[in-house]
Amino acid sequence: MNAGSLRAKLPPDFVWGVSTSSYQIEGAVKEDGRGPSIWDIYSRQPGRIANGDSGDVACDHYHRYREDIGLMRDLGVRAYRFSVAWPRVMPNGRGDVNEAGLAFYDRLIDALIAAEIEPWLCLYHWDLPQALGDLGGWTNRDCVQWFADYAALIGRRYGDRVKRYATFNEPSVFTLFGFCLGGQPPAVSDHAMLLRAIHHVNLAHGAAVDRLRASVTDVSLGAIHNRQPCRPAAGDPANLPAAEELDAYWNRAFPDPQLRGFYPPLLAGAMAPYQQADDLARICRPVDWFGLNHYSPLYVTADAGNPLGVGLGSAPVNVPRSNMGWPVEPDAFRETLIGVHQRYGLPIYVLENGTASPDEIDASGEVADAPRIDYLRAYNAAMFAAIDAGADVRGYFVWSLLDNFEWGSGYSQRFGLVYVDYPTQRRTPKASFHWYARLIRSCRAPPAPPAGPRQAPAAARRHD
Ligand code: IFM
User: Fold this and answer.
1) What's the CA angle centered on 403, arms 398 and 409, to 5 degrees?
2) What is the per-residue pLDDT across 278-288, written as a single tens digit (0 to 9) for each?
3) CA–CA separation, 422 vs 51, rounded Å?
4) How many CB atoms lie within 10 A of CB 421?
5) What pTM does this model have?
């Protein structure tokens, strides 16, 4: 597809961006009054994270944010999605506010705006204050009020400069891994806790939407859902019920009640004991867009070893995989975009897409990350095909700007457009960085001709 035909397919204000999250890049976990998060504590527990890594230093973005914004400028993105670390601004999650923590995000936001990059602020990307974790975290219904108060603080503080807010990033991931499948804090396997957490996160989303609307003029709001087609592993019909079960929890447990006002039928009965009158109305508040994260489809097995009876299996052998072992199937992205468009009818912003590859700096000091370029090229083509088929996609953000702390995999997996040498913190743009910069440039409308007196027709000019 050439640049002209690409531009013609995209809405004129299509947003190209990059995404990160607080715990994965900031570091400075003990600085300027930040309180501990559940990830600080969890990553210190032996055996939890590859190589015993933690986000203590991560990309040291807390101190190097100006350099990182410079990279975004070079890349040509006009939007940056980041998250606020709740324990940095409210060390105990409620009550006292930490002015030094708030001031960090003031500096970040002001520097972004000065660089003509729009800040997209996500309230929650998994770093719950440990003090709230100690009170039961998302399983405690009081978390709805805690989160609403935090949202209001953020809206009041930054609402004059930040208009784009997301409530939660991938609620299905942190609830399912935290309360059922393991691998994220609190790493328990308990169906009742899972159901409670799902319902409270949904209520917290609704409450935060209301508080942000009340505190930010011209606000533009959404939540960010990770959506992956759930397929029976090995094409085995015996795995079909497990695939349907996981689909209900993974893909629908949050967007269905938030956007359509009901829980998927497979969950509705189980959820009933945790619901109070009017809860669904409190959850289903008007939002402006659907934030979509997508990487791959899931292949699901029946597995009696957890409360949902589901397991994550392997893709068919002929399907290529990323360094994470995730199947690379761009058509699943096209299918997902069209499905989200048809089911929810909201403008879609792709707020994460990208891949891990085994990147290294070569002898000439460059990072030739061909697998990432291949992936991004194929997934962008799939997105353009979805737009062609009518999906209302308004923006695309690569995960991630920088290599960073990849949760249980620590620093062993690299998702960045920019290589980070952790011992020195030196940043090196990879080949994919330059590829993405070219894509953005080629899709941007050519500059309008300069205003001024109308030129004489060519024939007349010849006689000047
Ligand atoms: O790094 C994560 C991110 O925090 C949430 N979405 C998926 C990414 C890659 O695993």
Assistant:
1) 105
2) 999 999 999 99
3) 14
4) 11
5) 0.95
Q: Strand locations in 53-137, DSSP E?
A: 79-83, 118-124
CA 120/CA 288 separation, integer angstroms: 14
**Amino acid code (one letter) for 346:** L
Q: How far apart are the CA of 355 and the centre of ligand 1, in A?
A: 10
DSSP label of 265: H
Q: State how beta strands 310-312 and 348-352 pair.
A: unpaired
- % helix / strand / coil in the chain, to the nearest 5? 45, 15, 40
pLDDT digits (tens, 9 = 90+) for 116-127: 999 999 999 999
CB atoms within 10 A of CB 458: 7
Residue 378: alpha-carbon gap to chain centroid: 20
Ligand 1 binding residues, C-beta < 6 A: 21, 24, 170, 293, 352, 399, 406, 415
Nearest CA owner, ligand 1 atom 2? 406
Domain spanning 3-445, CATH architecture? Alpha-Beta Barrel (3.20)
- Dist CA 44 CA 88 (whole Å): 19
Q: Which amino acid is at 314?
A: S
CA dist 57 and 27 (Å) reads 4
Segment 242-256, tens digit of pLDDT? 999 999 999 999 999
Cα-based torsion angle of the residue sequence 174, 175, 178, 181 in order, rounded to the nearest 10 degrees: -100
Give phi and psi for 153, each to the nearest 5: -60, -45
